[in-house]
Amino acid sequence: MPEEPKVERDWRYKIGRIKTFDRIRDTREFNTVYKKAEKTWHTPWFVLFYKKSPERKVAFVASKKLGNAIKRNRAKRLLRAHFLSHIDHLKVGKYILVAKPPLLAASYTEVSKAFQNVLRKCKVLTN
């Protein structure tokens, strides 16, 4: 039997990878986005900071207030999952998502609805 041609999978199938966005790594860059964010939106589960920029960058933050490393990593995974579900419709810019403690106890659909509403209200969704 002939071998099937190898198909390059779409980026969405690579778990935990956000290929179209670079990560924000530098402390100075974090502080710039925090202080000069054009859009800041608070929910009971997370805070979104958005700054217009020609670059596409994102960061997921979970402080020690959330708990041990397992809880912090779970919170970042949840934020990343919600971000990935809307990644095709986001404007170019820098995004920082900060997890709050109630995120760990909330249902996925509840947070998903809030995430959609925040993106709509911040006007960072493209049509």
Can you characterise this structure?
The protein has one domain: 2-Layer Sandwich (Ribosomal Protein S5, domain 2). It is globular, with a radius of gyration of 16 Å. Strands 1-4-5-3-2 form a five-stranded mixed beta sheet, with helices on both faces. About 5% of the residues have low confidence. The longest helix has 17 residues. The termini are far apart. It is built from three helices and five strands. Helices cover 33% and strands 20% of the residues. It has 127 residues and is an alpha/beta fold.
Question: Which descriptors apply to this entry?
Answer:
single chain, 127 residues, alpha/beta, Ribosomal Protein S5, domain 2, 5-stranded mixed beta sheet, 3 helices, 5 strands
Bin the helical content.
25-40%
Counting helices, strands and paired strands, the structural category is: alpha/beta
> Per the principal axes of the C-alpha atoms, what is the gross shape?
globular
SSE pattern, N- to C-terminal? EHEEEHEH
Parts with pLDDT < 50 across at least 5 consecutive residues: 11-16
**Tell me about the biggest sheet?**
5 strands, mixed
Q: What is the number of helical segments per DSSP (H or I, 4+ residues)? A: 3
Write down the CATH class. Alpha Beta
Radius of gyration: 16 Å
Average pLDDT value?
Answer: 86
Query: Any idea how many domains?
Result: 1
CATH topology assignment: Ribosomal Protein S5, domain 2
Total count of strands: 5
The largest sheet has its strands arranged as 1-4-5-3-2
User: Strand-residue fraction?
Assistant: 15-25%
Straight-line N-to-C gap:
45 Å
- The CATH architecture can be named as 2-Layer Sandwich
